[in-house]
Specification:
By secondary structure, this protein is of the alpha/beta class. It contains 11 helices and 8 strands. The N and C termini lie far apart (61 Å). 52% of the residues are buried.
Length: 388
Amino acid sequence: MSEIPIGYLVGTIAAATIAYLALWPIPRPGPRMTVSMVLGMSGSEIPFLFLALNLFSVAIAASEGSIASVPAYLGLALSLFAIVGQIVVIVRATRTLPTIADALGEGFGATNLRRTLRVQDWLRAVLTPLHVPRRDVERINDVSYGPHGRANMLDLYRSRTPKPARGILIQLHGGGFFGGRKSKEARLLMERLAADGWLCLSANYRLLPAAFPDQVVDAKRAIAWARAHADEYGADPGTVALVGGSAGAHVAMICALTGGDPRFQPGFEDAETSVVAVIGLYGYYGPAPTSGPPSDPLDYLSEPDKGRRADIPAIMIVHGDRDPMVAAASARELASQLRTASASPVVYAELPGAHHTLDRFDSLRCAGVVDGVEEFLRRALPRSADGV
């Protein structure tokens, strides 16, 4: 009988650690990801990969007769913990759609969103979680929309086959205002909508040391560019929606609350930059490094007459209840304040087991979020653009 392989024991410790961090992430608020956050997020979003590796290592060790000693039993116990933990992670991910359906029902009064994932969602999550680009969607890289070099470039996604003109969706990446790029997040969402005829843009914007409101100025410049060039790409220039993740959700939310504000449109004050809907994913909604005007979204909610504001677009906020970087309480508070201030629908969905950056992989949770965003847009947008 062979001794327990050191590699097996190390592997089981790693698997158990990843499962633990997926279930009980270590809170560490701040703009920078830590190793524990990356491991926990990976374990939360691609559990099938870790489950398969764990089962494979147990099978190999068992076939070699290596599980017959005290250290081996410890390794087996860790493997079983990891297996159970990964199954719990998967079960929690399947609750994404019901949670979002309930939130949409609360925001709109009713919803037709189905509550179970499709077979293709499961297949993608199991077989290709690292994302395989769709062949029916064309991606045009590095289109300039402003004067600040690579900070003012965007990627454009559109269907390869002619479709009826739909709206424009602009995605703003996360990164704590100091990092990130346009090609990392929300790919599944952008490609899904582009395949259905939307013009989808993923935009870079200025990062630190550029301070607030430079990021918002760039986002509004991207909106103005999209409206001006919509006809070239067969899109409806009158229907623009924003989606942002983490710091990008902060930028998107400020845009939603400051339509037509000249402070955020220097040199293009007359451009139309209003939006009809905003989606914030795992957003940061507190103060940002600023060079002047207030940077907290809550600073832009108050009105002198304290009436409900008709100029605020429909808003959807999606946040994980296990987010170690931005506590769900902050997103919950913003949703509550928006419901008081806005005359438009406000949808808040707090996802069981979800961490930060929940749209990086083609996971079960990401598939549910994409379905929820599609349904939100159907309900929120004008009828002329609701063919998603």
